[in-house]
Structures are given as C-alpha cells and as structure tokens.
Amino acid sequence: MKYIAAIDAVEELETLEQTDGVMLTGEDCLIRMEDQRLLMQSLLLNPPQVETDKRLAQMLHSQHILWLEKIEECARSQLCIRLPDRPADDMLPQTQAEFARLADYTGQSAAELQEQVASLRSVNPDLSSRGCRMMIDNELLFRTLLRAMFIAADQRGVHELSILLPFVSDAREVQFLKAIIAQHAATYQITCAIGIEIATPRAACIAEELAVCADAIVFNVEELVQLLYGMSQRDSKKVLCRYLHEKVFRHNPFHEFDEIGIGTLLTIALEQIRRVKPNIRLSAIGHPVLCEKGRKFCNDMGIDMLIGQQHLFRMAGVLESAT
Predict the structure, then answer these.
(1) Is 50 exposed, middle or buried (0-12, 13-18, 19+ CB in 10 A)?
(2) pLDDT tens across 288-303, in order?
(3) Under DSSP, is residue 252 helix (H, G, I), strand (E, B) or coil?
C-alpha cells in the first residue's frame, strides 16, 4: 500500500514524514494572503467578462509566485495537484470587518457588497458551487489558475503533472475541463495525466463512463459518506453523539469504514471501472479508509494508494506499519 500526504501549504513539508508522494491543493493559493483573498472575493462577486480584465492579470501574477514555491518544494516527490474544491461561500466575506476591507478594496459600499453576497450564498454550500461546478461557473478564473500552474511548472523544469478534478458528477464536466487543461498543457509542452475524484453517488454509478475519460480514479470516501447518510460532516456531532450513546449507530461512519453502504457502492463502481480500464490507478481519500477495516477493504479490492492528512496517518499508525 502506498500513502500520499495531502497538504495545502508548502510549510507542511517541513514536518512531512516518509510518504510515497504529495498531493497539493489549490485552495491555499486562492485565499492564502489578505490581498489574494480580497482579489478572489472581487472576482466572485463581479465576475470578469473578458480575459483582459486587469484583475485576472493580478491573479495570474500572485498565483504564479505561489505555485513556483509549491512546485519547487515538491519537485522531488510524486506530485499530484488537486484543483480547488472549497465551496464558493467559504471564500466570501463573513464579518463586518471583512466587508469593510472589501469595500475599501473595490470602491463599493459595504451595504452593496452585503447585498451581492446575500444573493450568492447557498442554503447548503457543500452541495452547490464547488469543485468542477465552481470551475465551470468561473471559467476565466479557472483558466488563469491553470496558466499560473503551468507557467510555474515550466519554469521549474517539471514536464509531467497529474491533476485531480474534484466533486465530479457527470462525464461532460470532465470533458469540458479536460479540453481546457489540454490546451494549456500543449502550450507549455507538459504531459498531463487527469485523475477524477468520485465524491458523489452519481459519479460512482457512472464510474465506467468516467473511467474512460481518466488516467486515475480517486474515491473521496468522506464525501460519499455525507451523501449516502444525508448528513453533513460539519454538523455530524449534533446527531452522532446521541446516536452512538444510544447505540443507534454502532460506529461513526466518518471515522470507521461502512462495509454495507460505502463498501457496496465502491464495489459496484470498481466492477464498472475494471470493465473498461482494468489497470487504471485507484486511490481512496478520507478518514474511513485509514482505519484497519478500511485499509483491508482497499487492499482486497485493489485500491493500492491511500491519501490523507499527516495527522490521520499518524493516528492510524500506517506509516510505522509501512516502514
């Protein structure tokens, strides 16, 4: 079994234990610094209509600098870039102080900005504009982010990249984004492998169709648990404390592997995938697959790569057992 550490910031590499590779996320770059966060908020509230929008040039400059740092630090490791998956709502201003700073940045009144934000907010951010949906909704932003990544890779002499598309639910989403990625990859003569993250039950149901479009498949088990149980992980403690105390649930499905629900869904998806690509790379991400039962399921089913944050690896003791 191989273990891939998921990290947001390059500073995490300083404490990185021995793993088989690194998966970088793009979210940290979008809102890491105050000026980047304000720029991103401006672009979300007033989306650019043309590629010559000056804000996109600012975004390209700041993103390029950050990706130079990320790619340089991870050049020696097996490198996969997971495109941003954070809901758009999480990037919008929340407090009066944030609205005041954004008002100074954009020249709009705080009251006007509050109205715009209110109109964009989702009732359930986890099930709205995120992952592939956010990138397609904000195509010019997505193109700018990709360009920054590919320029940085080219300047650092990285000629191969693996890019993971998160929160997919339809093959046409993949085809739309793959075409844009291929265009940028060709410009900088970089070979680009495309991974698809199966994080919705629908994606699992059309796994065969998705596998045709992919070089690798990653099962996001925590996201699948949320949708199979109809329970947000953010709010799960409100229900699970009582359920576990009264033994309504035998275990916390966000921590322990659910053989009946998740196991059945993954088995169906894997059968479909192997019909079209029996040798495709298979990975899983999330707390449930790091427990002993989850690792055994993955090993038995031919999922030979697990992705997670370092502290979860330490809690599960997988790095010690792997060495």
Answers:
(1) exposed
(2) 999 899 999 999 999 9
(3) coil
